[in-house]
Amino acid sequence: MTLTLDYLEDGRVATWALTADGVVRTIHEDYRPTLFVGDEASDLYGQAGGPDPTPPPRDGLSDALTELQSFLDGQEAVAELDVEAHRQTFRTEARPLLRIDATSIEAVRTIAKRIRQFAKPDVYTCYNVDFTRQLRYCLETDTPAGPDRSVRDLRTLHLEFPSHESGIESLPQLTLEDERVGSSPREVVAGVQQAIDKHDPDVLVMSTADLVPLLFEAADAYGIDLELGRRPGYTKLASESTYTSYGNVGHSPARYAVPGRVIIDESNSFFYHESGLDGCLDLVARSGLPLEELGWASIGRVLTAMQIREALSRDVLVPWRAWRPELFKMASTLDDADRGGTTFSPDVGVHEDVHELDFASLYPNIIRTRNISPETVRCGCCDTDDVPGLEYSICERDGYLPDVLGPLIDARSDIKEEIPNAAGDERERLEAASSAIKWILVSCFGYQGFSNAKFGRIECHEAINAYARELLLDAKAALEEAGWHVVHGIVDSIWVTPVDDRQQRPLEEVAEEITEAAGIELEYECAFDWVAFCPMRNSESGALTRYFGKRRGEEYPEIGLGDAIKTRGIEGRQRSTPAWVENVQNDALRVFDETRSPEAVCDVLRRRLQELREGEVDPTKLVVDNRVSKDVDDYSMETLTVAALKRTQIEGAGVAPGQTVRYVVVDADARGAGRVRLEFEDLERYDTEWYEDAAVRAAESVLSPVGWREGKIKQYLAGARDETLAGY
């Protein structure tokens, strides 16, 4: 089992394994990373729904591969060439391919690029090229990716550093386990080394991995020996970059590694943020992706690692830069297929006695129960019209994707059953594991439509949606027949109320019947005393994802709303909303629950606005949190975010596209950087009028279901009248 591993400069690999007494380092002398090459004929032969050209040779290399072999023979990046039979797709038999052992990990891409330059891009297909470094070694040597936690728990050390700071002189602001280390850069470096020597951590959890080069720079400047790892030095694995995914701009920080210890960068770790170290370790065991790589991996990368392992277990190679053309469709089929999940327009207003039902892991279970997989949809060997509305065939042979997701679905179901009976650390571990698995299951459907997915296919995406639409419509019909009125439905969830003057069959009974017919469990989620569906901002039509409701039997905690009121889409659920505005909305929700009185809600709002005007609000509760999508010079409008970006330049704390800028509005009507102050600056004042407007909009979200919009709220606030007693 492996804690982490290092690729050494001479091509060797050092693995670090957890033991009861510490960590053992082992050097592997003869490891050589491997890639494979097939030619056009062997690559296309037998693909699902694709052409059926002349089969390639079964006993030796094709002429094209033989020519490539001669070209590569003797090149410095190539350690050895051989012929080996493997499957190139899930629907083909094993055929001879060119195996290439590279001299180093860096040589793999060098060889792949030369192959693409040797002939037209469609002549050769390279396989097993772009695996991440640690995953590749574990795959090719059959090494377990996770540490052996049966010998002892992992030891961690947390290092925090302000995100806006940089440079050696800022190091005194570093904290270790929430405590300052020293008052000078020299003391900080010495203190970090002392803490590492004392605790001997296996995992360094850093607020930003930029601490690695910064600490080493300071150590060099002051002549101090620093070892963040279990050996001297560090490695820069990747530079920072900006990327775009589904229209959203993201930022990937630089990544670093130190020998013998795992670095988790909190600013670049989705799974650590969502599920903690326990959740990460659970996914390491399930995905086979080593902990350090899982720490910075996206959901798609973890899912891809699972798919890669399943493919290799079936002797199917993993294509580099996969390209699968969409199969021919009639225009009418394109129109039918280009649709998402079913949604029912909600009935705007407040509804009493509402019940929510949800299909359990709908999309993963559709994949599993309907055998949806890239090689099964429109397979070419079955003449059926299985997919509703699209008439796509689904192959009778088992697909690989259900085998990837099935264990995850079962594991999460088992974990959810264990959680109510668990307590303390065990409960936290189970909840972390459940959260980590949830994100994989949530994303598996969308990843089928992702153009860069290794084994994705748009027809799978379309088929899953088609089944989901049918399931929700069938559920709606069954519930209405049983005496229930559907007030809203969206993809996998449905809300119902009793129909007046009709006898209702028990929901649990109806849900069981729907479950049996669908083959996917329709769970009774919860009952609400009331649910309010909001209209769109500039329309009377219902907003699909903006609602809130009081769960039956839930009590309010001392702070916040807890689980008492479920909210979706309104300001309190939006990351950019200042904490004070969120608190104002929470107060409004409490009073609305108790009174249903718009006047009482406005009276609460009036008092909160008064404290704002009198300067009683802590400015740190007014911080706006916005993600930046472009460089400051690329914006055409002088928004508050642009003002904040200009201020970061002035303060020497530049923010790259994809990162977050946090600021307080001090004068929205001013020009330039003076409109805001950054979170870390002295915050002595704020723009009262701007925050008043934000609070009124938050109150409007609460009152819009009963017909009170911004104008009516402001009219009430401006009027001279006695406040309601319920408003207190």
List the helices and strands and how they pair.
Elements: E1 4-7, E2 13-18, E3 23-28, E4 34-39, H1 40-44, H2 63-72, E5 78-86, E6 95-102, H3 105-118, E7 124-127, H4 133-141, E8 156-160, E9 175-176, E10 179-180, H5 185-199, E11 203-206, H6 211-222, E12 235-238, E13 241-245, E14 248-252, E15 255-257, E16 262-265, H7 270-287, H8 291-296, H9 299-313, H10 331-337, E17 343-344, E18 349-359, H11 362-369, H12 400-418, H13 424-447, H14 458-481, E19 484-490, E20 493-498, H15 507-518, E21 522-535, E22 542-551, E23 565-568, H16 579-595, H17 598-613, E24 624-627, H18 640-650, E25 660-665, E26 676-678, H19 688-703, H20 710-718
Parallel strand pairs: 8-11, 11-16
Antiparallel strand pairs: 1-2, 2-3, 4-6, 4-7, 5-6, 8-9, 9-10, 12-15, 13-14, 17-19, 18-20, 18-21, 19-20, 21-22, 22-23, 24-25, 25-26
Structure explained in plain terms:
There is one protein chain. The chain has 728 residues and is α+β, with helices and mostly antiparallel strands. The protein contains 20 helices and 26 strands. The protein folds into 5 domains: 32-129, Alpha-Beta Plaits; 148-313, no CATH class; 335-535, Palm domain of DNA polymerase (Alpha-Beta Complex); 565-617 and 690-727, no CATH class; 619-685, B family DNA polymerase, thumb domain, alpha/beta motif (Ribonuclease H-like motif, 3-Layer(aba) Sandwich), CATH 3.40.1820. The longest helix is centred in the middle third of the chain and has 24 residues, at 424-447. It is globular and about 90 Å long. One of its GO terms (molecular function) is DNA-directed DNA polymerase activity. One of its GO terms (biological process) is DNA-templated DNA replication.
